[in-house]
Design a protein that fits this description.
heterodimer, A: 441 residues, alpha/beta, Spore Coat Polysaccharide Biosynthesis Protein SpsA, Chain A, 2 domains, 37% helix, elongated, B: 357 residues, 10 helices, RGP_fam (chain B), EC 5.4.99.30 (chain B), UDP-arabinopyranose mutase activity (chain B), golgi apparatus (chain B), isomerase (chain B)
């Protein structure tokens, strides 16, 4: 059966749909044609946009207006977005230029590490500090686009000199990086870690998460059962006092680890196949006056606020090149927590995760770490009972006071504590001398 | 050790499920596979003339206001009317070691994998393994399968302390206060945080009574949900009050409080305007209450929950009466509650529960 050929009118209306954007005024059109144009042609052809909608509205024709209302056609409101410099982190207005990534190199071949982290680190400035005990030269991949400063034993000797009780070997080498950095935020990740992957196999960017943690307030005075209230989709729960909802500045962000968790040697030796596969989707503030073991494997901090408090002080006599053979970060972490509690700053723990590669032999490390395990028995209650004096109003003052107390109160029970106290005092002096102002290297 | 995959004991003869209701108990149908083996204590709020239908097949006892008055006599004044705070009557009359309480608008939630969550089983797991309030473990509950104590955690603290309370969370409608509900009416909690953790000693938290379990023998007398509802100037602070008292006493007696898993699915958003009216005074009062609870010091000779609670009531009377006369009434009710508890639970009176600090 032959279909009816289109009428001239129909063709004209069809043609006009194609050129609707050139019209400035539709009101001369008879009502029935206007309606036809709107409903059957424009809408059906999917050609309705903001400009054309305005055109129809401007006709003032009642039937068109009531149609628009019935169909619930609404204006799209374009939000006015603040201009963002492309160099800024998407979150919280921290510029890339305010961040240093500090890596302590305990392995000379950093090529796998750098390739793994390239896509995440490339926008930032990197400080790589080579473990002074490492004999071989560092191997960095060729042709990397980002800015890296590499510091070695000679730099450390030049800046720190030889008459210091601070040892920068092993994991403590990265503290040199903290010292010479001149940025507001520092992120530090161990060189045996790579980015973790989320449920969709995308790389997790721990730097972005750390910065989110540092840029949003911490809430140490009351526990929020929905964890970080500043995360999307969360808030303070019923019963949370309003006066405490503005929180305090977060000075330290402690991340976690998938695969090889930061367990101690006895635990890992007992369960050699044990790996951490649980991704806990939470960040939370560690409450005030609550102590915790802060692992140095994956941390970030506000250097301006707490830089001097991260101190390379407690060295085990048998300290080695695997985490099971160190306690420097645990000690340093408790110093930072005491300082934060005293100065009204916050510490968060939880996200982000990094993937920690299998390394080392827990049973071998048992012999060395046993010393650290013993020391913790005394260290924890001591830090928990620490109350700094009111006159300590800066981070340096706090560390100096703690150092004195370590010497007086703990120095007697183990020479390691005496050495730690010395190192802390030297660190404060060093920080005052070269922690700010022009770079000493 | 944490990794042993032993099945969780059912504890069906040691646990009561306490449910306050004013509407109906239809929600129990969804919970049937998980609850059917347990004894229910239903506390019927509101008009005692109304009959609350309990779904077939459940073993239960039901108490309405007439029963409460009959059983407690003049002491019934401490049990709230027209508020879910009346649930604590259920704790009073329970004869079991453990109590699990849940609201009648809470349903079974699902994990991200799609598996239905047996909230009761998780609560039992939480209660049966120790808490670690003295040092924060960054991998959260070290006794969970797949987790452990991290490097630096003192070995002397790894035994933990007995867990007195297991505080569960909620997906979907979050437990926000009225102002937050008004500002964010559409926000839903969709984040499944796969963790249980001990709330550290000395830290207070807002305890929600929607999905809560506790060891009645260890901490029961502290779980008084206060004077709320009809005739009272405040509502929706019953569980908060119980939580603050409980936490202070747990800290003093060396008991643990856990929060996190399990999740339930909270389906009903209460009216924020009604809530605002109820909470209004509480929002101001909590500013005074938090510093009060944070600075409470219980004397060493308070070595039972009852003694701690009576002492707490004295301090409430002494220090909070200046905030509002309500707290004098509340302090009286706290004493009445302990009297009622000891009367109905004579064998537990003056039992030493743990070492006091």
């Amino acid at each position: 059966m032959r279909t009816q050929p289109p009428s001239l009118l129909s063709l004209a209306v069809d043609a006009s749909v194609l050129h609707l954007s050139h019209f400035s005024d539709l009101s001369p059109l008879p009502d029935h044609i206007l309606l036809d144009l709107f409903l059957k042609r424009t809408l059906r052809a999917g050609k309705l946009n903001e400009k054309i909608l305005k055109l129809f509205l401007a006709t003032g024709k009642e039937e068109v207006l009531s149609l628009i209302q019935t169909l619930n056609i609404q204006h799209i409101l374009t939000p006015v977005l603040p201009t963002k410099s492309p160099k800024m982190s998407v979150v919280n207005n921290i510029e890339d230029g305010e961040i240093d990534i500090v890596i302590g190199a305990l392995h000379s071949d950093l090529r796998p590490f750098m390739s793994a982290w390239k896509s995440i680190f490339s926008r930032y400035h990197l400080i790589i500090v080579k473990d002074p005990d490492l004999k071989d030269d560092l191997q960095i991949p060729e042709g990397l686009s980002f800015k890296i400063d590499i510091y070695t034993k000679s730099h450390i000797d030049k800046v720190v000199g030889s008459s210091t009780s601070i040892a920068f070997s092993g994991y403590s080498c990265k503290y040199f990086g903290f010292l010479v950095s001149r940025k507001k935020y520092v992120v530090s990740i161990d060189d045996d870690c790579v980015p973790a992957k989320d449920a969709d196999s995308f790389l997790i960017d721990p730097v972005a998460q750390h910065l989110r943690n540092l840029a949003t307030p911490a809430t140490p005075f009351f526990f929020n059962t929905l964890y970080d209230p500043y995360r999307n989709g969360a808030d303070f729960v019923r019963g949370y006092p309003f006066s405490l909802r503005s929180g305090v500045t977060c000075a330290l962000s402690c991340g976690l680890w998938l695969n090889l968790a930061d367990l101690d040697a006895p635990t890992q030796a007992l369960k050699p196949e044990k790996r951490n596969s649980r991704y806990v989707d939470a960040v939370m503030t560690i409450p005030a006056r609550v102590m915790m073991p802060i692992s140095g494997i994956n941390i970030a901090f506000n250097r301006e606020l707490v830089g001097p408090a991260l101190c390379p002080a407690l060295r085990l006599t048998g300290e080695g090149k695997v985490r099971w053979e160190t306690m420097e970060d645990i000690w340093s972490g408790m110093c930072v927590k005491v300082v934060c509690d005293h100065l009204g700053l916050g510490v968060k723990s939880g996200l982000p995760y990094v993937w920690r590669n299998d390394r080392g032999d827990a049973i071998e490390s048992l012999k060395k770490e046993w010393e650290g395990v013993k020391l913790m028995e005394e260290v924890v209650p001591w830090f928990q009972s620490m109350v700094l004096s009111r006159t300590a109003t800066t981070t340096e003052d706090c560390v100096a006071e703690m150092a004195k107390r370590v010497k007086e109160q703990l120095g007697g029970s183990d020479p390691g504590f005496g050495r730690a106290a010395e190192a802390m005092m030297d660190w404060v002096e060093l920080w005052k001398k070269v922690g700010s102002g022009p770079s000493p290297v | 050790m944490a990794d042993a995959v032993t099945p969780t004991p059912l504890l069906k003869d040691e646990l009561d499920i306490v449910i306050p209701t004013i509407r109906n108990l239809d929600f129990l149908e969804m919970w049937r596979p998980f609850f059917q083996q347990y004894h229910l204590i239903i506390v019927q709020d509101g008009d005692p003339a109304k009959t609350i239908k309990v779904p077939e097949g459940f073993d239960y006892e039901l108490y309405n206001r007439n029963d409460i008055n009959r059983i407690l006599g003049p002491k019934a004044s401490c049990i709230s009317f027209k508020d879910s705070a009346c649930r604590c009557f259920g704790y009073l009359v329970s004869k079991k070691k453990y109590v699990f309480t849940i609201d009648d608008d809470c349903f079974v939630a699902t994990e991200p994998s799609g598996k239905k969550i047996n909230a009761l089983e998780q609560h039992i797991k939480n209660l049966l393994c120790p808490s670690t309030p003295f040092f924060f473990n960054t991998l959260y509950d070290p006794y969970r399968g797949g987790a452990d104590f991290v490097r630096g955690y003192p070995f002397s603290l790894r035994e933990g302390v007995p867990t007195a309370v297991s505080h569960g969370l909620w997906l979907n409608i979050p437990d926000y206060d009225a102002p937050t509900q008004l500002v964010k009416p559409l926000e839903r909690n969709t984040r499944y945080v796969d963790a249980v953790m001990t709330i550290p000693k000395g830290t207070l938290f807002p305890m929600c009574g929607m999905n809560l379990a506790f060891n009645r023998e260890l901490i029961g007398p502290a779980m008084y949900f206060g004077l709320m509802g009809d005739g009272q100037p405040i509502g929706r602070y019953d569980d908060m009050w119980a939580g603050w008292c409980t936490k202070v006493i747990c800290d003093h007696l060396g008991l643990g409080v856990k929060t996190g898993l399990p999740y339930i699915y909270h389906s009903k958003a209460s009216n924020p305007f009604v809530n605002l009216k109820k909470e209004y005074k509480g929002i101001y009062w909590q500013e005074e209450l938090i510093p009060f609870f944070q600075s409470v010091a219980l004397p060493k000779d308070c070595n039972t929950v009852q003694k701690c609670y009576i002492e707490l009531s004295k301090q409430v009377r002494a220090k909070l009466s200046k905030v509002d006369d309500y707290f004098v009434k509340l302090a009286d009710a706290m004493v009445t509650w302990i009297e009622a508890w000891d009367e109905l639970n004579p064998s537990s009176a003056d039992l030493s529960n743990g070492s006091s600090k």
